[in-house]
Design goal:
The structure holds three protein chains of three kinds.
Chain A: E1 3-14, E2 21-33, E3 37-41, H1 48-56, E4 63-68, E5 71-72, E6 80-83, H2 95-105, H3 110-123, H4 139-152, E7 157-161, H5 169-186, E8 189-194, H6 197-203, E9 206-210, E10 217-222, H7 237-264
Helix pairs in contact in A: 2-3, 2-4, 3-4, 6-7
Chain B: H1 28-49, H2 55-58, H3 61-73, H4 77-108, H5 110-125, H6 128-139, H7 143-167, H8 171-179, H9 184-221, H10 227-236, H11 240-267
Chain C: H1 2-5, H2 19-29, H3 31-52, H4 64-75, H5 78-111, H6 113-128, H7 131-142, H8 146-170, H9 174-182, H10 187-224, H11 230-239, H12 243-271
Helix pairs in contact in C: 4-12, 5-6, 5-8, 5-10, 5-11, 6-8, 7-8, 8-10, 10-11, 10-12, 11-12
Classes of the chains: A alpha/beta, B mainly alpha, C mainly alpha.
């Protein structure tokens, strides 16, 4: 069985101007099974995004490692793809070319890459918008294209950093449902970061709760609700019970995190 | 502003070496800058001494320094410097007053702006030197002509930035003031004017720098004193060292003006609305 | 300030519409375009009248009609077109080389950090120096021929272009770099697919800026040493008190400069089809 393992990772860095050392992640270990959907919740600045960057290989941890099937990760690779918080589609490419970008990076010719990306655009509901430029799409549509771009390279692991944060409440719920639909189809391992507890529970098999900085895992809660899940499930008692449990776990951490963020303001803050 | 060569995670992270360059050390900029200055000067000196390039064409750092020392020790530089600076100071003060006035009027009264704007743009597009023949025709050679040239260049920058400052008063601030019952004058005084101060400072800085250039231009064309005159005369005598000295002096002057006004400008940065 | 006065307009909507009203509305609506033209026209008229009645000395302030007459005459002479050719060639050669070299050099400075730090003091120093002051030097180097003019155009244009592109090259948006790195883009592919398109708008902005500077360079160059050229003619006319011709010459220079400026803008709109312009807001309305 494949699995993604985060092995006792510590992440420390130096602030650019003040040169103070900041501990972002403090001895974090986690094993994620293949094809499972795992959410990570935690207060702002707790290192969630940093963790994602480490898994993706964009950042090397100070101590510890990340392994997939025992193989250590040292740089971005074909088996992982990240969906960033801001859509960050290149404004100078059409939507289709943007989706094809990951494949082009791997050396696929532009024509082939675009051909392979078309069905993905259809899957995320953007058929007909291939030749539009990103500024012609709404934010929700841009995020769908963002998702399509990540799926185009057919990664084993999908890393999502608060992808729905910029959407309004209704669009957000719809996107959550759509994401589950796509995931059921594709069966990838997903690591999903969010601030919204209901989003985390709705989407995942497991919710990991992180502490305020320095980030540690303070709870690991399995979500035993049946799949496929419709949006109505959010109003069932078992769902709300989970919500309450996680919220209480988080409440004091959020307060603590808020204090740290106030202290940070004015200096570059960690994600 | 981000450095393209910084790692793709948040700036301070160490990165997988295969992905990106190293994180810059803070003092790198200073060191490399100094090395750059010294290296170019050294090469210059060498090339000139060995006549790889004829030294009369490019002079050399040592000769320039000698010329500088001479100018300062004989005191020949002072009347020139004073002439240039006094014309500039007078001209620019007038330009500042005129510029702020035009800028404020343009910002507050739309009609005024529609009229003034094209004239300002037309003046700015033309190079200073192009105005010179016409201005000499109208004002003759002398102080008046120089002042007018400075006015033409300086006023534009001050006016355009002041205008931007007045217009930057965001709708929402105006709405708040209005809903609290402030009269138009009070709104002007308490919302619009304070908000435009940073922009006015920027305009003053830009205008000051460009006005110095205008003075030099005027001096080249018609004068018997001033830095511009000094350079022009040295040029005709093929006294490359003095020409370079003059240029260096101008560069330093321009730099000082920019720096001093820039510092003052930065003190108002806290007032500026945060850019997204 | 307009926001404050907007409230007053609502009352007019219910009033009956007569011809005078319609005119007033059209005038008000198109104020932005009409007023400048009106002010130009009024000034021209006042100028014309004052010149004709002798209020303004025709030798110093040629009337607009005199300018037009001089212009029509000039355009039919070979001398005029010789001047145009001379100035235009100085401009095109100097500007072309300067923009190309400037973009390359400025980009290298921005992308290769240390290279940038190395040259920055010199570029900054050159930037602060008025081109006029450099002219004696240029004359010493290139003599009095055409090359000295091309040289000054080059120098005047090169430095601002470099400064402009340098800033642009250093501010490529990090989020795009992250995406590219996340997909494993190689350094060269990153340059091609992210950095260059990111900087292209800055490049065109620098090229537009360069037009004004290059024109200034032409004027400076021809002031010092020329046999022909539009700016040279300007100075000649001044000495000969040919005010009408002089003003026509100034207008020609302005006109040509504007033409070059428009050309660059046109090139940009063709190359960068993806740009959102202030007026060309596309089907964006649905944004949440």
């Amino acid at each position: 069985m494949h699995s993604l393992a985060i092995n006792d990772v510590v992440m420390e860095y130096e602030r650019p101007r003040t040169h103070e050392r900041v501990l972002a992640i403090d001895h974090l270990s986690l094993t994620i099974e293949n094809s499972s959907f795992v959410s990570v919740v935690g207060p702002s600045g707790c290192g969630k995004s940093t963790l994602l960057f480490i898994i993706d290989g964009l950042v090397r941890p100070t101590v510890g490692s990340v392994t997939i099937d025992g193989r250590q990760i040292t740089s971005p690779g074909r088996d992982r793809a990240m969906v960033f918080q801001e859509a960050s589609l290149f404004p100078w490419y059409t939507t289709l070319r943007n989706c094809a970008y990951g494949l082009e990076c791997q050396g696929v010719s532009r024509k082939d890459a675009e051909t392979r990306s078309r069905p993905l655009l259809e899957m995320v509901g953007l058929a007909g918008f291939e030749h539009h430029y990103p500024h012609e799409l709404s934010i929700g549509m841009q995020q769908r294209a963002n998702l399509a771009r990540a799926l185009a390279v057919d990664p084993d692991v999908l890393l999502m950093d608060e992808p729905f944060a910029a959407l309004d409440a209704q669009t957000r719920e719809l996107m959550q449902a759509e994401l589950l639909g796509i995931w059921a189809h594709a069966k990838k391992t997903v690591v999903f970061i969010t601030h919204q507890i209901d989003e985390a529970i709705y989407l995942s098999d497991r919710v990991i709760v992180m502490s305020a900085r320095p980030g540690r895992i303070i709870d690991d809660i399995p979500v035993e609700l049946e799949r496929p899940r419709s949006l109505d499930i959010k109003r069932t008692p078992s769902f709300t019970a989970l919500e309450e449990r996680i919220w209480h776990r988080l409440a004091s951490e959020v307060k603590h995190g808020g204090e740290m963020e106030r202290a940070d303001r004015g200096v570059a803050s960690a994600p | 502003m981000t450095d393209t060569t910084k790692p793709p995670g948040a700036p301070p992270y160490r990165v997988a070496a295969s992905v990106w360059q190293s994180i810059p050390h803070p003092s790198e900029r200073l060191i490399y800058g100094l090395v750059g200055i010294v290296a170019v000067l050294a090469v210059w000196e060498a090339v000139s001494q060995t006549e790889v390039v004829k030294s009369v064409l490019i002079s050399r750092p040592t000769a320039i320094i000698t010329a500088a020392i001479q100018e300062f020790s004989t005191g020949a530089i002072w009347p020139n410097l004073q002439a240039t600076l006094s014309v500039w100071a007078l001209g620019f003060t007038l330009a500042a007053i005129l510029g702020i006035g035009i800028g404020l009027l343009s910002g507050i009264f739309r009609t005024f702006r529609y009229i003034a704007d094209p004239w300002l743009n037309a003046i700015n597009v033309a190079p200073d030197l192009a105005f010179v023949p016409i201005l000499i025709l109208w004002f003759g050679i002398g102080l008046k002509f120089k002042i007018v040239l400075v006015l033409l260049t300086g006023t534009f920058y001050v006016a355009i930035n002041t205008l931007a400052g007045v217009r930057s008063a965001e709708g929402r601030f105006l709405q708040v003031a209005e809903s609290l019952g402030a009269s138009q004058i009070r709104v002007l005084r308490t919302v619009v004017l304070p908000g435009s101060v940073p922009y006015v400072m920027t305009g003053l800085r830009q205008g000051a720098a460009r006005s110095i250039i205008a003075v030099i231009v005027a001096e080249f064309v018609s004068s018997n004193q001033g830095i511009g005159f000094m350079i022009s005369v040295a040029g005709s005598f093929l006294d490359t060292a003095t020409v370079m000295f003059g240029i260096a002096l101008l560069a330093i002057l321009g730099f000082l003006v920019s720096e001093i006004l820039g510092r003052i400008e930065h003190r108002f940065d806290a007032w500026r609305p945060q850019l997204p | 300030m307009a926001a404050l006065r907007r409230g007053n307009r609502i009352a007019n909507v219910a009033a009956p519409i007569g011809p005078l009203d319609r005119f007033g509305r059209w005038f008000g609506g198109n104020r932005q375009r009409i007023l400048p033209l009106l002010s130009f026209a009024l000034v021209a008229l006042a100028w014309e009248v004052s010149a004709d009645i002798g209020l303004l000395n025709q030798a110093f302030f040629a009337s607009p009609t005199a300018i037009v007459i001089a212009g029509v005459r000039d355009v039919q002479t070979q001398l005029f077109w010789g001047d145009v050719r001379a100035s235009a060639s100085e401009f095109i050669v100097g500007y072309g080389i300067a923009v190309f070299a400037g973009l390359v050099f400025g980009f290298t400075m921005g992308w290769f950090r240390r290279f940038g730090y190395f040259f920055r003091p010199w570029i900054d120093a050159l930037n602060a120096t008025p081109s006029l002051a450099l002219m004696p030097l240029v004359l010493i180097w290139f003599g009095l021929g055409a090359s000295s003019k091309v040289a000054i155009v080059f120098i005047t244009t090169f430095v601002p272009v470099v400064v402009n592109i340098y800033t642009g090259a250093r501010t490529v948006d990090q989020k795009f770099l992250r995406v590219a790195a996340g997909f494993g883009a190689s350094r060269t592919f990153l340059l091609r697919s992210v950095v260059v398109p990111s900087i292209a708008p800055f490049g065109f902005a620098a090229a537009r800026l360069g037009v004004g500077r290059a024109v200034s360079g032409v004027v400076v160059g021809e002031f010092f040493s020329a046999q022909a050229g539009l700016a040279y003619r300007l100075f000649q006319d001044a000495q000969l008190l040919q005010t009408a011709r002089l003003l026509f010459g100034a207008l020609t220079i302005t006109f040509l400069a504007l033409g070059a400026f428009r050309f660059v803008s046109f090139a940009e709109s063709r190359t960068l089809r993806w740009r959102v312009t202030a007026s060309g807001m596309s089907r964006l309305a649905r944004n949440a």
